[in-house]
Amino acid sequence: FQDEKISVPDYTETELITDAFNKMLGRVQSLDTSRQEFVSNVSHELKTPLTSMKVLADSLVGQENVPVELYQEFMQDIAAEIDRESKIITDLLTLVKLNKKASNMNIEQVNINELLDLILKRLRPIAAKRNIELILEGFRPVDAEIDETKLSLAISNLVENAIKYNKDEGWVRVSLNADHKYFYVTVTDSGRGIPEESIDHIFERFYRVDKSHSTEIEGTGLGLAITRSAIMMHHGAIRVKSQVGEGTTFSVRIPLTFID
Ligand code: ADP
């Protein structure tokens, strides 16, 4: 090796500056593209309920002697579309707020067992409507430094999905574990599962596995994007494993101590 010379490219200062500038430009451009994509997705999603409302309203306007039942039915459909529009806007505002700087984190020492207990208590009536059992496992007390509102939102979304995409008489198991550095929450369900080709997309904004189900099971496709953002703000991680027809497990890992 002694005879070998290592050649170091002789960059001039201008070349280095140009290189750095080009890299930065590339980053700004890709940011701009994703922003444009976001705006275009949002516009599309907001327009869908509006289009339905317009069609429904137009078919009543100018009609004489519309039977009361039909009139009521159309009005109910319009009200449902307004609810949908309003849910999209609420979820979008939540997501935008979450994506603001980590400085808006309201960190407190929280008992995670109690937090999970509260989430399940709140969701039990919804699960009971379809005879879905909610089980909480994890008897060791776990205290951690978290933003209670944000983490609550993240876990609630997972449990809500586990109920929504489950079968009647199914079950949802939420478990809590911890080691010296992290706590772990897993949400497992006996639901329909997620196809392999969709797994990489479910955290994307507005992504729904089966768009044709969108009228059957309500949702905005923003829940998991919100969950992931909230977990990222805690410097945590989320993973998913699923088997179609068997069920899904979401695993969340959060540091016990908040790192600023
Ligand atoms: P949505 O409002 O549609 O529920 P999410 O962002 O929460 O939006 O989830 C994205 C998509 O991922 C859902 O539309 C659904 O197809 C799929 N999904 C999420 N959680 C589950 C689950 N536990 N079981 C099966 N599919 C799920």
UniProtKB/TrEMBL annotation:
GO MF terms, alphabetically ordered: phosphoprotein phosphatase activity; phosphorelay sensor kinase activity
All residue ranges annotated as the HAMP domain in the record: 1-33
Residues covered by the Histidine kinase domain: 41-258
Keyword DNA damage among UniProt keywords: no
Organism: Blautia faecicola
A single Gene Ontology CC term: plasma membrane
Official protein name in the record: histidine kinase
Compartments, as annotated in UniProt: Membrane
